[in-house]
Amino acid sequence: MSITPAQCRAARGLVDMDQAVLADGAMITRGVIVDFEKGRRVPTRNNLAAIQRVLEEAGVEFTNGDAPGVRLRTKKR
Fold this sequence. Notes:
This protein is mainly alpha-helical. The chain has one domain (about 5-65): 434 Repressor (Amino-terminal Domain), CATH 1.10.260. The protein is about 50% helix and about 10% strand. The mean pLDDT is about 95.
């Protein structure tokens, strides 16, 4: 699964994470995040996976299919 720039922006908003924190967690430059979210470029597969991993570890769940989006993962009881 590949995330979209809009999903990345929305996911950061859900967990109140700025671009610098995401970049640091994914061990990439903030410029990669900025360019991706603005649609200027698609990060390498490894960088995109790292971005997704950091956001998922923060509690985001990515949804795809007919309606790509994001939501907060529900806590298991």
